Amino acid sequence: MEQRISIVTLGTADMARSCAFWEAMGLQRRSRKSPGMAFFQLGGIALGLYPFDKLAEDCHLPGGPPSGSVTLCYNARDEAEVDAVLAAAVAAGATLHVPAHKAFWGGYSGYFLDPDGHPWEIAFNPFFPLADDGSLQIPA
Amino acid sequence: MEQRISIVTLGTADMARSCAFWEAMGLQRRSRKSPGMAFFQLGGIALGLYPFDKLAEDCHLPGGPPSGSVTLCYNARDEAEVDAVLAAAVAAGATLHVPAHKAFWGGYSGYFLDPDGHPWEIAFNPFFPLADDGSLQIPA
Predict the structure, then answer these.
(1) What is the pTM of this model?
(2) B55 and B29 housed in the same domain
(3) A53 is a domain residue
(4) Which residue of A has its CA nearest to B61?
(5) What's the ipTM?
(6) Residue A87 is part of which domain span?
(7) Are B46 and B89 in a shared domain?
(8) Does the CB of B36 have a partner CB in chain A at under 8 Å?
(9) A92-103: average pLDDT
(10) Which of residues 56-85 of B touch A (CB under 8 A)?
């Protein structure tokens, strides 16, 4: 395999609510011709939204509400951006789940839960600098 | 927020086994100084591995085995690459969960479960071309 992930798909209980949330966060929905699934561009990958039951059917697994077995992280450029993104998420309808704090690993981080309960960490990691285009290259 | 995901972190029951799996898939572990967490570069983002219990503790959620509420998709360049990646995953220790087949949406796709049960779809989508660098730009 080449080294990539192409799409992260999140199950949702309410497509309209979840699309509205991500649009309020500034993401633009694309490929509106795709019936029943929503795609948002996130750098070089896509965020997908699909109903919980249909996603579970597609991958032949139980599905249902998310657990803490997968987390998604948005790395911010500084601590102030962590605070700003968490505040924007709450304003858009998310739940502040873990308030931003100095983390044991030397960064600054907090979590919000999106409207379906998926955990999103917003973190500033001084050891993992971001490129101008937002891409992350993990140090060797 | 800018439009990106930085890190997708998967909970694991066995760090050594999961690291060995992804290394057998050709990924290179980076940032080995990070204690207790593994990072692999995937295009402009990182794949993280972290013990189920520690990940659940970090995000203050129950954690445990994954459900079908989040899926990760690797888009292949053609149908033959779908077959090849699924075969490579099985050879590296994954379970073939949904054999590759013509999908209702016009593509060709199958799923493997990684050693911790996370569902990975391997798909060829003729409507979503990949750039030379593997990045995916969803059509408008």
Answers:
(1) 0.95
(2) yes
(3) yes
(4) A68
(5) 0.95
(6) 68-132
(7) no
(8) no
(9) 97
(10) 56, 58-75, 85
